[in-house]
Design a protein that fits this description.
Blueprint: H1 2-15, H2 18-41, H3 43-54, H4 59-97, H5 101-125, H6 127-140, H7 143-173, H8 175-187, H9 196-217, H10 226-251, H11 258-262, H12 264-275, H13 287-308
Helix pairs in contact: 1-13, 2-7, 3-7, 4-5, 4-6, 4-7, 7-9, 7-13, 9-10, 10-12, 10-13, 12-13
Length: 309
């Protein structure tokens, strides 16, 4: 557990360094913009697909989950507003005191993270009250209005997951160059040659399984609270094999898949922390890269420990 904690702290430290942050931001923004354009171009088709999916779901479940989705959307808006207010009133003051790029990016990252955590606690405490009021609102609205709103949210969910999957592909494909820079600058180490084709194979396999499981388990996403845990399981499945294989191939000359079975608890824990970024739009661009760093450092510590024995 100590190595897992160290890997998490190391990854947090690395993603706020400008030389790493600019790569994460550039790839994340480009991928997000690409899929948002695709979403706009095929907006009517995606909304129609969302409406078709809703036909198979009872209205009581649609209304119940609609209230949960609206609650999540309100949380997202409040996080962005809080972040904008803090940046507007305190960002410039902080930059005057700490003009370095590293410090300013660290401030931005932790401001957004703190805003998400604070409103997460507020909504956790007040969940029943907020949920009940949204449920009452959806009861008053005509079914067609509710259906169109939820069809739009489902379309957004499809595009958002496409962004998450693409970012994982990009982070995995670029992992050798990305991790090599971190290893040299922070650890004074050289990585071994990565097994890029095998890594892509794992990513494609897990993506296909993830898509199949998402289709099978999609009705469960309409059950409030339970849908949160279903999404966690799906994203962990998507991340765990690709990220662990990438890390192993960068640390060891010969990838021993038995190590993954031996350290599966650590792999699940690191995957869990990595996918938490996906629950906060904007921070979602950090998830895959955070996982690449955390997994690499974990297996690096493991190799160092084995070498010292």
């Amino acid at each position: 557990m100590n190595k897992v904690n160290r890997a998490i702290l190391f990854a947090f430290g690395q993603i706020t360094k400008w030389q790493n942050l600019k790569i994460i931001l550039l790839s994340g923004i480009l991928v997000t913009i690409f899929w948002l354009i695709i979403g706009l171009l095929f907006q009517n088709a995606l909304i129609a697909l969302g409406a078709k999916i809703l036909e198979f779901v009872p209205f009581s479940m649609v209304r119940s989950n609609g209230a949960f989705m609206l609650e999540g959307f309100l949380w997202f808006i409040l996080v962005l507003i809080t972040f904008a207010i803090i940046q507007a009133f305190f960002g410039s003051l902080y930059l005057k005191e700490h003009p370095s790029t590293n410090k300013s990016n660290t401030f931005t990252f932790y401001t957004l993270l703190l805003s998400a955590i604070i409103w997460g606690i507020v909504f956790f405490i007040s969940h029943h009250y907020i949920y009940a009021n949204f449920l009452r609102l959806l009861t008053w609205l005509p079914f067609e209005t509710v259906e169109k709103s939820l069809a739009f949210i489902i379309a957004f969910y499809i595009i958002y997951n496409a962004i998450i999957i693409t970012l994982l592909f990009v982070a995995s494909f670029y992992s050798e160059a990305f991790i090599s820079t971190i290893a040299q600058n922070s650890l004074n180490k050289e990585i071994v040659r990565t097994h890029i084709l095998s890594s892509i194979k794992y990513t494609i396999k897990d993506t296909l399984i993830y898509m199949l499981l998402s289709i099978i388990l999609f009705p469960l996403l309409f059950i409030p609270i339970f849908n949160f845990f279903v999404q966690i399981i799906l994203w962990i499945w998507l991340y765990k094999d690709t990220l662990s294989f990438d890390a192993l191939s960068l640390v060891y000359e010969k990838v021993d898949t038995a190590l993954r079975k031996e350290h599966k608890v650590a792999i699940y824990l690191l995957s869990f922390v990595s996918i938490l970024f996906n629950f906060v739009p904007i921070l979602h661009i950090f998830g895959a890269y955070f996982g690449e760093i955390a997994f690499f450092y974990y297996f690096h510590l493991l190799k160092e420990e084995d070498g010292s024995k």
